[in-house]
Design goal:
- By secondary structure, this protein is of the alpha/beta class.
- The protein folds into 2 domains: 3-115 and 310-331, ornithine cyclodeaminase, domain 1 (2-Layer Sandwich); 134-306, Rossmann fold, CATH 3.40.50.720.
- Helices cover 37% and strands 21% of the residues.
- It has helices spanning 8-18, 20-37, 84-88, 114-132, 148-160, 173-182, 198-204, 248-252, 261-267, 282-287, 289-293, 308-324, 354-364; strands at 3-5, 49-53, 59-67, 72-80, 93-101, 107-112, 139-144, 163-169, 190-193, 207-210, 232-235, 255-258, 300-303, 329-331.
- The protein has a 7-stranded mixed β-sheet. It has a 7-stranded parallel β-sheet with strand order 9-8-7-10-11-13-12, sandwiched between helices.
- A hairpin with a 5-residue loop joins strand 5 and strand 6.
- The longest helix is centred in the middle third of the chain and has 19 residues, at 114-132.
- The radius of gyration is 23 Å and the shape is elongated.
- The structure holds nicotinamide-adenine-dinucleotide.
- Nicotinamide-adenine-dinucleotide (NAD) is lined by residues 80, 82, 85, 92-93, 117, 121, 144-150, 169-172, 175, 211-214, 221, 236-237, 239, 304-306.
């Protein structure tokens, strides 16, 4: 039995042939359609769990499974190591995603989860902003945290909203400075600002995305402030117990929409709220856009912790393109024996028994 393996070069081919804008647009459409139609109450999507450690550096490796009961389940393994960019020249988030046949357990596919995560995280923020944010022309997007996720936040939001200007802050000034070059393809002016201008960023913005790697126990990123009417915030970076980006006072006077309520209560901004202070989740609002639009005039927050169903949809987009473009390798990864009751029957007929395999091994050494 074969497993479809997508290599980095296959993903690159898909990006080049489809184009970044078209790919983002299709992902946004698939997520909107998927979340508004799927019966997530019937799906098996447990809150994320994993290994958390402080040595050799603070980091975690977590697993995010999703069984939509459509014959296959996905499992994303995601690592978060905020020292990666400076120490190893690697992204903070490194991830892979696999698909399994839920009839047999067979590994059907394996592909990257790093780009697919960044794409779906941006796309989910764009959908939440479309539902809850202001739609007027000339929007100012305030960005706090200018790392990898910030690129796809800017890209995805620019596909759905008339953003005129981005005001960007990062505690690392080089990250804020380089955002202009990394997002040059969306042709929206980027103004980097330092910490002294953070209040200006907050008070001038119509939309804000927070996507920092602030350490647990160190948040929030700023104090409550006098926001513009109808401000919408995508809180993207808060995805760990004890990690917060937003002040609780601001959350309490906002309409807060979690991506995944159960998970957000454990590791999102919703940790800071009582259950009755939390609004409908994103799937409910996508099914009932009028319910979301009724909130547009007030302060709204999308508490994004990362949804395994979004990973499923993002990965499927690439697997579908791989099939259409005949990309990817078909490998026999699993040792499927000819006799299901005998694991050693993967040995070829030329090696009649495990005893022969032992003799061959002794001769070879
Ligand atoms: N919600 C989701 O679905 C989702 C998906 C992916 C990543 N994330 C989270 O988003 C965050 C950003 O991820 P990334 O891949 O962009 O990481 P990254 O390391 O590439 O970028 C994070 C940036 O935040 C900056 N930063 C840290 N603390 C700050 C502070 N107090 N003020 C201003 N800037 C600060 C860092 O200097 C860095 O440039 C992480 O916390 C990650 O766990 C969430």
């Amino acid at each position: 039995m074969h497993t479809k393996l997508l290599a980095r070069s296959d993903i690159e081919t898909i990006l080049l042939r489809v184009g970044l804008d078209a790919l983002m647009d299709q992902l946004i459409d698939r997520l909107r359609d998927g979340f508004s139609k799927a019966d997530l109450a019937q799906a098996q999507i447990p809150a994320r769990s994993g290994l958390h450690y402080t040595s050799p550096d603070f980091g975690l490796i977590e697993w995010m499974p999703a069984n939509l009961k459509q014959g296959k389940a996905s499992l994303k393994i995601v690592g978060y190591h905020p020292t990666n960019p400076a120490k190893r020249g690697l992204p903070t988030i490194l991830s892979t995603l696999s698909f399994y046949d839920t009839r047999s357990g067979h590994l059907m596919g394996l592909l990257d989860g790093t780009l697919t995560t960044a794409l779906r995280t941006g796309a989910m923020s764009a959908l939440a902003t479309e539902l809850l944010g202001s739609q007027r022309d000339g929007l100012i997007l305030g960005l706090i945290g200018c790392g990898a996720q910030s690129v796809t936040q800017c890209h995805a939001l620019s596909r759905l909203l008339p953003i005129a200007r981005i005001v960007a802050h990062d505690r690392n000034p080089k990250a804020a400075e380089s955002l202009r070059q990394r997002t040059s393809f969306i042709s929206i002016p980027v103004e980097p600002v330092d910490h002294g201008e953070l209040t200006h960023l907050l008070e001038a913005s119509d939309l804000i995305c927070t996507c920092t790697s602030e350490e647990p126990g160190r948040g929030p990123l700023f104090r409550d402030f006098a926001n513009r009417p109808g401000l919408h915030i995508n809180a993207v970076g808060c995805d760990f117990p004890g990690k917060f980006e937003l002040p609780v006072e601001l959350l309490r006077r906002s309409y807060v929409c979690p991506d995944f309520r159960e998970q957000a209560l454990i590791e999102g901004e919703c940790q800071q709220l009582r259950p009755e202070e939390i609004g409908e989740d994103i799937a409910t609002l996508l099914r009932n856009p009028a319910m979301a639009h009724a909130q547009r005039d007030q302060l709204t927050v999308f508490d994004s912790t990362g949804h395994a169903f979004a990973d499923y949809i993002s990965a499927m987009l690439f697997l579908d393109y791989a099939t259409e473009m005949q990309l990817g390798a078909e490998l026999e990864v699993e040792c499927i024996p000819t006799d299901p009751l005998n694991p050693y029957s993967i040995l070829s007929p030329a090696v009649p028994s495990p005893a022969d395999a032992n003799r061959i091994q002794r001769t070879a050494t």
